[in-house]
Description:
The chain has twelve helices and 16 strands. It has helices spanning about 5-20, 30-35, 40-50, 70-75, 90-95, 115-125, 140-145, 170-175, 195-205, 225-235, 250-260, 280-294; strands at about 55-60, 65, 100, 110, 130, 135, 155, 165, 185, 190-195, 210-215, 220, 240, 250, 270, 275. The strands form eight sheets. A two-stranded antiparallel ribbon has the order 1-2. Strands 3-4 form a two-stranded antiparallel sheet. The longest helix is centred in the N-terminal third of the chain and has 19 residues, at about 5-20. It is found in: Nucleus.
Amino acid sequence: MNESLDISFVDINKFIKTDILESPEGCEFNQSATNPNQTTAVQDVETSVSTGERYEVKCEVCRVSFSSKRLFHKHSETHLTEKGISEANSEAEIELDVQKYECTQCGKCYKHKTNLIAHTKIHQGYTYRCDICGQTFNYKQQLKIHQLKHNDTRQFVCNTCGKGFKLKQQLQRHQLTHQDYRPFPCDQCEKSFKLKQQLQNHQVIHLNIKPFECSQCFKRFRLRPQLDIHYRVHDKLKPYECEVCGKFFSLKQNLNVHLFNHTDDKPFKCEHCFKGFATKQNLTVHQKTHKKGK
């Protein structure tokens, strides 16, 4: 018997002793390992040795090497949970999180090939167009969400107040308003918020930065939605109509203030003459008349 085969059989005996007979997990091969001829896994190793071939496969999780595919697959099962996710160690978890599918045009990486395929449509000029307003989107899912704006169906209803929503995520966010739990505190002041987005919007105040500038009057805003609403002034868009008098307003809050004029509710009272006003702004204007009279 040549030297290479002698070394191989030594490796087999060592493997049987350490990886099978002394396995702490009670491997199913324990009972038959005392008789290598009855162990299919060992027979696989002996077959490779008898042919003069050296077979080796290494576990990518714990880096242990095996001389048999059968033993390797059996060993791999020890790293799997019921959901089939490796939990052997943190190194394995990092390996599973690798974004291995890279876009050849922009270098962006994805964990799943299907996500990469969807992404490449951007470079190929594929767009999804809304057949109602003509707006285009890079992804079909974006188009589906957009089309809900044209549909007034609100199938997700809050069981507390009865308000309906088009998306389940919108309902979940709304339901937080019925709770007093505010898990997102500001590290600059004592305020806390129910949503992370609310905290992020609030923190802009402490930065005193207004990155969004109007291209027509150069007025600056802290948040993009504020700029979008401001553009209505230049575009003369007034989507909010008073159902009583038919007057239109650019902002919903302006409509709400206007509605006080159609009611007898005038909560803002002048401390000098006790005259009531529907808005605080109207009260402020009125109070100036008392100052002029002095």
